[in-house]
Write a structure and sequence with these properties.
alpha+beta, three-stranded antiparallel β-sheet, globular, 24% strand, single chain
Length: 41
């Protein structure tokens, strides 16, 4: 089952996802767990 997680801008940049993911009103990013790559599952 997929889950959404909220990460800081730094983390989104490190994962290379900041440009393609939705930014929340507080400046953090919303990522789908499976879209995070190496640590998903």
């Amino acid at each position: 089952m997929g889950k959404y997680i909220k990460v800081s801008p730094f983390t989104a940049e490190q994962l290379g996802l900041a440009d393609i993911r939705q930014k929340a009103a507080d400046g953090n990013y919303i990522l789908w767990q499976q879209g995070c790559g190496r640590n998903s599952g």
